[in-house]
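Recap quiz, item 2
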Amino acid sequence: MSATPLLRIEDLRTYFYSRAKQAFIRSVDGVDLDVARGETLGIVGESGSGKSVTMHSALGLITATPGVISGRVVFHDETPRDLLAGLDTSARLERRDDRIMAVEKDNRAWQKQVERNLDGIRGGKIAMIFQNPKAAMNPYETIGAQISEAVRLHTANKSPAEARERALHWLDAVRIDSPRLRYDNYPYGLSGGMCQRAMVAMALAAEPRMLIADEPTTGLDATIQARIVELLEELKTRFGMTMVLISHDIGVIARLSDRIAVMYGGRVLESGPAAMLLEQSEQGHPYTHALLASMPRTQNVKAGGRLPAIEGEVLDTINVPRGCRFRERCQRMHDGIRARCAEQEPELVEVTPGRRVRCWLYQA
Amino acid sequence: MASPILEVKGLSKHFAQRRGLLSMFSGTTAGTIPAVDDVSFTLAENETLGLVGESGCGKTTTGKSILKLMPVTAGEIHYRGQNITSLTPGEFRPLRREIQMIFQDLDAALNPKMRIESILHEAIGLREPELDAEGLRRRAYELLDLVNLKKNKLANFPSELSGGEKRRIGIARVLAVRPKLIVADEPTSALDVSIQAQVINLLRDLQDQFGLSYLFISHDLPLVELVSHRVAVMYLGQIVELGMAQRIANAPRHPYTSALWSSLAEKRSQEAVTGTAPAWGVFDFERPSGGCRFAPRCPVYAARGKPAACTDPQNAPHLREIEPGHAVACHFPL
């Protein structure tokens, strides 16, 4: 990609210290991602793979005291801005063998720096929609008031009357019928699908450059999911919105993404054009292939009605093993590379134009 | 087809809707919500019947009614030819071992203060009270082996297990009482795709091994199509279509089934090209007062110029067989 991406994430690491386990949970462990202007990047992965934490870290939403973030997240608006700048001064890390061994964190200074870094960006230039709309919205305020607030905070429409008009416009844009009536509804008075629409309206009200959708369809009914996917698709075509879509639902990712990144155990294992990743070929990372094959689709069914499951459990991100993270569940590891898989983690290298894979199979 | 292990006839479950605090004492109600309304189906031995529908359509209520976990308003449930609807809890007790349920929320279904060992021993003790400590342990190992779990998990608490492991413990506990019929309520809903496939394979193996019958409740359509022999589609408390899984998925006759299947994100992307996908507005749950319940959302109803038959309260569509083994409740099947 020649043009500068809108958002560039470099070597992002987010660790949480677990007092109970006396160890670091390495939720995100060296992630590099680019989001180009106008494209939709889909991030897939199983639960615990770090896909949400990656984007939450980028937007300073990791507020828990024991959370430590390092790396660079550069947002290229008019001037490039590192959203993680200066955070390292309020956290002191003790490293040994490339591993963080201990941490001291000044949480108040950290929070202040986050506020400074993200001022005008979070909610304004980068808006986010969350998995559980009812929990993400304020239950004590009407949806109209919440959307107007976003309008007044982030756009030039400052008067209450103007803000109300804009809010109604956005409610209409997300296809909520009779927006004037719905304006005065509280979140609990809306169904799940409606509430998700209201949240999309709230995100759009700030007229952002980029939208991050974290599991926007999870927990909704199939028919409602389809509507939300349609809505997001419309945002893409109508407003040319740059989007990051986080989901474990490959169907949703397939429908909306231009590019896909597959995450596992806090790392990107593969990234590339959506169409290329989704065709079930032996190209690409064994994990992507196994993930697609384990989906309940008729063409995946083997003899006796069995699905090709990926044996084993999702990676334990506390005791991350040496070598390749997917090694223990990998079905395509052969004797020629076995020693290397166990010894050293492969780099993310380009195997075909645009497609980058982290696997020794492709690095002879 | 073999003789049915389970036969449900005209099952209804209405929940009373109360208004305000005082009505709780006075007993007056503001009306009833028909969560399940006149549902009938049969389940053969060694068969899997899928029950699909959107949330709130009464899938789980149907499942719980079969286990007599809640009293029914009307209708009969026959288990191996015996009417179990009016049995007292004491009379039903021996049958309860044979009819089991895998619950949706295992964090709620497994006691967090009990170790896996005690959870399993308790269940085994119910079925085989004569076993001594050694026998209990052997049977617990056997069960763990059945669900492909390691023995060292016995000392763990449920909170220390992953989602897939908890699911297996839930299944092992159900198997402990050697059931014949299992109501599986969203058994894979909280699991990742790779783990989901493991659990589905496990359920299938167990069916082959023990000749189990499943009522498989899920809102995940491709999954239901895959695991079920027959599928029943529910809409607002009623079964609108019932037939062989392949037929329901590939040649649905009820407009709702068709809409449900085509709403799958993946399938729709293909259909959007050909333009066959129905265009709907935003809706909430609309419960029409009479006639066909699906009419307000129905593309066929709209396309046919809103025929009066669909909204006539005297003429609600009933499930009728339109071809062998395929029944549909619609005046104008596709």
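The CA atoms of residues 92 and 167 of chain B lie 27 Å apart.
Chain B touches chain A at residues 54-55, 162-165, 192-198, 200-201, 204, 219-223, 225-227, 249, 259-260, 263-266, 268-269, 280-282, 284-285 (CB under 8 Å).
End of item.
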